[in-house]
C-alpha cells in the first residue's frame, strides 16, 4: 500500500454535504450531456481541407498505430514543449519520482478525457510512467496546442485527439478509447463527464472493472450527483472540482491571468475605461473581475447567488441584471457553468463591436445556435474570431464560437495546471489503492489532508518556509501539528 505522507489519515473521505442547494442538478442526465459538448463543436481551422486523421495510417517510433492525431511527425516538437512545461511543474515531477519507487498505479488502466496540452502531457507521463498503467486519452477539441500531446504516444499513452475535431469526431475518439480489444480500463479520469456519460450509455458492463472515477469540472460533478441521486452511480467517484487546490488555484488564479491573455491575442482590445459585464462571481468570475479591474476596466457583475453578489459588492463591483447593461457594455464574459446565459435577445441588443466570450466550463453559456440563421452573416476574421453581422451592419465579435476562451485562444499558466494535475493524481492513487469497502457507490470530496499535501509540494518553488506549531499551540487550537489545519468543508 502507498505511503505518501497523508497515509496516516485513514478516515473516509467526507461525503459532499447532501443538504446544499441542488437547483442546478435538477436536469436529467441525458439533457445535461447534450448541454455540455465543451469539446465537441465543429470548429475548423485553415487545414480543414486535409484528410481526416481518422483516415490516416500512422505509426509511432515503437511501431504502434494505437492513436489518432493529425501528424505524428510533430512528436519531437511536442517533446520540447513538454520539457518547457516541466520546468514549472516541479511538484508533479517530485511526485513522479516518488511514484517510480512505490508504483502506486501499477496495474492501473486509466481511460481519460481531458484537454490535450503540454501540461496535461506531463501528468499523462506520470500516470503512464514506471509507477502507472497504460491508458487512453480522447482529447477535448478546444485545446489550442494538440501537437504537444503527440509526444505522449511515444510514452505509452494512446492519444485520440486533434484540433478541429467535429462533434462526431469527438465521440468517435471516446468510443475508440473505451471499446478496445484485449484492454479494459479500471479507472476513469474525466473533465466534463462526457466520457463517463458515454460509458453509461454504450458500455455499462465496463463499470464492473472500474474502481473509481476522478472528475474535475463543475459540469461533470453535477452529472455525478445526478447519477448518485437517481441511484445509478455504480462506482465510487472523487469530486476534485470542489477541492480547495482546484477551486482557488485553477479556477481563481488561473483565470485571473488567462482571461486577459485570451482577449488580447484575439482582439488586441484596450481594457482601460472599457465597460465589461462578467456573468457569474464564483471563483472564475472573481479571477476575471480582479484582472479587468486592475487594468482600469469598468466592471459589472451578474449573479443568482446572494452571497456571491454581496462579495462582488464588497469588492467594488456593481451587481446588475444583464438586460440592464447589455446596450452599453463593450465586453460580455460568461463564467457561470450554466446554459443560455447570453440569449439571442441579449445579442440583438448589444452595441456594435461588442466582444462576447465564455470562460465557463462548457460551450452552452452563449446561445450560439440562435445566431446560425439566414439573416445574420458570419465572417471569419482570424483563427477563433468571428464577426456576426446583423442586417443593419451591426457586428458582434464572437470568440471561439462560445467555447472556453483561455483553452481555445491562449494558454493556461503551467504552474496552476501542476496543482490541478497533482490533485488528480493523488485522487487516482487513493481510489485505486483503497481497500474494498472504504468507498461506497457515492461521490466523495478530497480530504483536507490531501489538499494541504498538494499545496506543500508547490511551496519549494517560492522558497517558502512554513511555521510549525508548538505542542502547546497545537493543543490550544485542537489540531495535529501536521494538519489538517482546516475543516473538510473549507
Automatic annotation (TrEMBL):
Residues binding NAD(+), per UniProt: 282-287, 303, 406
Start and end residues of each stretch annotated as Disordered: 1-65
Swiss-Prot/TrEMBL keywords: NAD, One-carbon metabolism
Pfam families in the record: AdoHcyase, AdoHcyase_NAD
Swiss-Prot/TrEMBL GO biological process terms: one-carbon metabolic process; S-adenosylmethionine cycle
Top-level division of the source organism's lineage: Eukaryota
Cofactor: NAD(+)
Biased amino acid composition, Low complexity: 26-45
InterPro entries for the chain: Adenosylhomocyst_ase-like_sf, Adenosylhomocysteinase-like, Ado_hCys_hydrolase_NAD-bd, NAD(P)-bd_dom_sf, S-Ado-L-homoCys_hydrolase_CS
Annotated cofactor note: Binds 1 NAD(+) per subunit.
Domain S-adenosyl-L-homocysteine hydrolase NAD binding: from-to ranges: 251-412
Residues holding substrate: 117, 191, 216, 246, 250
GO cellular component, one term: cytosol
Sequence similarity: Belongs to the adenosylhomocysteinase family.
Name of the protein this chain belongs to: SAHH2 protein
Amino acid at each position: 500500500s502507498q505511503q505518501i505522507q497523508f497515509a496516516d489519515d485513514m478516515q473516509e473521505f467526507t461525503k459532499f454535504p447532501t443538504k446544499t442547494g441542488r437547483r442546478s442538478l435538477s436536469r436529467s442526465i441525458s439533457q445535461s450531456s447534450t448541454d455540455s459538448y465543451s469539446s465537441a463543436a465543429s470548429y475548423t481551422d485553415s487545414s480543414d481541407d486535409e484528410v481526416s486523421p481518422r483516415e490516416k495510417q500512422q505509426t509511432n517510433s515503437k511501431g504502434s498505430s494505437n492513436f489518432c492525431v493529425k501528424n505524428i511527425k510533430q512528436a519531437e516538437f511536442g517533446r520540447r514543449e513538454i520539457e518547457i512545461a516541466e520546468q514549472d511543474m516541479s511538484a508533479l515531477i517530485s511526485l513522479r519520482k516518488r511514484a517510480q519507487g512505490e508504483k502506486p498505479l501499477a496495474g492501473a488502466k486509466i481511460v481519460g478525457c481531458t484537454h490535450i496540452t503540454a501540461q496535461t502531457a506531463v501528468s499523462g507521463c506520470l500516470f503512464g510512467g514506471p509507477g502507472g498503467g497504460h491508458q487512453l486519452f480522447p482529447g477535448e477539441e478546444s485545446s489550442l496546442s494538440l501537437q504537444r500531446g503527440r509526444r505522449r504516444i511515444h510514452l505509452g499513452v494512446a492519444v485520440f485527439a486533434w484540433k478541429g475535431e467535429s462533434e462526431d469526431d469527438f465521440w468517435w475518439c471516446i468510443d475508440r478509447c473505451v471499446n478496445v480489444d484485449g484492454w479494459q480500463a479500471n479507472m476513469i479520469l474525466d473533465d466534463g463527464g462526457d466520457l463517463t456519460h458515454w460509458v453509461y450509455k454504450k458500455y455499462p458492463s465496463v463499470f464492473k472493472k472500474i474502481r473509481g472515477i476522478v472528475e474535475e469540472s463543475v459540469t461533470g460533478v453535477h452529472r455525478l450527483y445526478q447519477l448518485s441521486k437517481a441511484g445509478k452511480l455504480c462506482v465510487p467517484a472523487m469530486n476534485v472540482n470542489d477541492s480547495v487546490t482546484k477551486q482557488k488555484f485553477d479556477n481563481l488564479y488561473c483565470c485571473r491571468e488567462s482571461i486577459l491573455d485570451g482577449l488580447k491575442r484575439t482582439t488586441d482590445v484596450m481594457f482601460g475605461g472599457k465597460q465589461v459585464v462578467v456573468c457569474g462571481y464564483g471563483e472564475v468570475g472573481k479571477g476575471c473581475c480582479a484582472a479587468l479591474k486592475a487594468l482600469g476596466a469598468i466592471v459589472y457583475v451578474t449573479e443568482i447567488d446572494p452571497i456571491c453578489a454581496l462579495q462582488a459588492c464588497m469588492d467594488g463591483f456593481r451587481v446588475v441584471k444583464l438586460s440592464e447593461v447589455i446596450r452599453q457594455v463593450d465586453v460580455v464574459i460568461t463564467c457561470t457553468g450554466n446554459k443560455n446565459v447570453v440569449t439571442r435577445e441579449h445579442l440583438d441588443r448589444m452595441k456594435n463591436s461588442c466582444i462576447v466570450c465564455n470562460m465557463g466550463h462548457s460551450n452552452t453559456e452563449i446561445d450560439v445556435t440562435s445566431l446560425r440563421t439566414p439573416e445574420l452573416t458570419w465572417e471569419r476574421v482570424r483563427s477563433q474570431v468571428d464577426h456576426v453581422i446583423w442586417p443593419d451592419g451591426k457586428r458582434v465579435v464572437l470568440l471561439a464560437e462560445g467555447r472556453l476562451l483561455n483553452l481555445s485562444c491562449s494558454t493556461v499558466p503551467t504552474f496552476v495546471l501542476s496543482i490541478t494535475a497533482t490533485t488528480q493524481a493523488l485522487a487516482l492513487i487513493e481510489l485505486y489503492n483503497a481497500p474494498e469497502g472504504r468507498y461506497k457507490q457515492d461521490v466523495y470530496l478530497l480530504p483536507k489532508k490531501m489538499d494541504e499535501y498538494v499545496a506543500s509540494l508547490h511551496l519549494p518553488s517560492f522558497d517558502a518556509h512554513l511555521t510549525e506549531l508548538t505542542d502547546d499551540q497545537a493543543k490550544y487550537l485542537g489540531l495535529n501539528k501536521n494538519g489538517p489545519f482546516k475543516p473538510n468543508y473549507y
